[in-house]
Amino acid sequence: MLIAGSLIKIRVYGLIRINMKLLPHAHSIFSRKFKKRIAYSFVSHIGFIIIEISFLTDTRLNGSLLKIISHGVIGAVLFFLAGTTYDRIHIVYLDEMAAIAIQMPTQFTMFSIFSMASLALPGMKGFVAKLIVFFEIITGQNYLLVPTLLITFVMAIKIILNPISLLSTLNILWT
């Protein structure tokens, strides 16, 4: 009986570790540290890029290249803004940063704009890359339908969890 209970706990731990690799946004929502929340968000973007590259079609490779470029620019700016925030106020935890954007409006306006770019809103750089990839998923030849549907489902969950993570961060910083 004791062995069965410990095996179940080990399996649950294994599922949590696999979930961490597949959906880091789920972990970023509960992270209290500012830079860690941004880092989890960008780890998920790397997973999105790997999914794009794995299909090896010209359109998806172009979309992933565009996503890599936008990921590099947006990530560098967001981490720069988080680092300069730490240098100015020496606070790491989001709970203690409540309404800090009112004291530094220019910095957090830039953070808000680049967070929206990270969300791939229309008119931003990441939107075109995601649009290319989803267009290719819909119109491309899918030889293995079930894995493609599974990957599309995981990508859709990532796209749903990304705004929850970043918008909750913006909510804490602005209110």
Automatic annotation (TrEMBL):
<keyword id="KW-0934">Plastid</keyword>
<feature type="transmembrane region" description="Helical">
    <location>
        <begin position="68"/>
        <end position="86"/>
    </location>
</feature>
<keyword id="KW-0520">NAD</keyword>
<keyword id="KW-0472">Membrane</keyword>
<dbReference type="GO" id="GO:0048039">
    <property type="term" value="F:ubiquinone binding"/>
</dbReference>
<protein>
    <recommendedName>
        <fullName>NADH:quinone oxidoreductase/Mrp antiporter transmembrane domain-containing protein</fullName>
    </recommendedName>
</protein>
<dbReference type="GO" id="GO:0042773">
    <property type="term" value="P:ATP synthesis coupled electron transport"/>
</dbReference>
<dbReference type="GO" id="GO:0009060">
    <property type="term" value="P:aerobic respiration"/>
</dbReference>
<dbReference type="InterPro" id="IPR001750">
    <property type="entry name" value="ND/Mrp_TM"/>
</dbReference>
<dbReference type="GO" id="GO:0015990">
    <property type="term" value="P:electron transport coupled proton transport"/>
</dbReference>
<dbReference type="InterPro" id="IPR003918">
    <property type="entry name" value="NADH_UbQ_OxRdtase"/>
</dbReference>
<feature type="transmembrane region" description="Helical">
    <location>
        <begin position="141"/>
        <end position="161"/>
    </location>
</feature>
<feature type="domain" description="NADH:quinone oxidoreductase/Mrp antiporter transmembrane">
    <location>
        <begin position="27"/>
        <end position="153"/>
    </location>
</feature>
<keyword id="KW-0812">Transmembrane</keyword>
<feature type="transmembrane region" description="Helical">
    <location>
        <begin position="38"/>
        <end position="56"/>
    </location>
</feature>
<dbReference type="GO" id="GO:0008137">
    <property type="term" value="F:NADH dehydrogenase (ubiquinone) activity"/>
</dbReference>
<keyword id="KW-1278">Translocase</keyword>
<keyword id="KW-1133">Transmembrane helix</keyword>
<dbReference type="Pfam" id="PF00361">
    <property type="entry name" value="Proton_antipo_M"/>
</dbReference>
<dbReference type="GO" id="GO:0009535">
    <property type="term" value="C:chloroplast thylakoid membrane"/>
</dbReference>
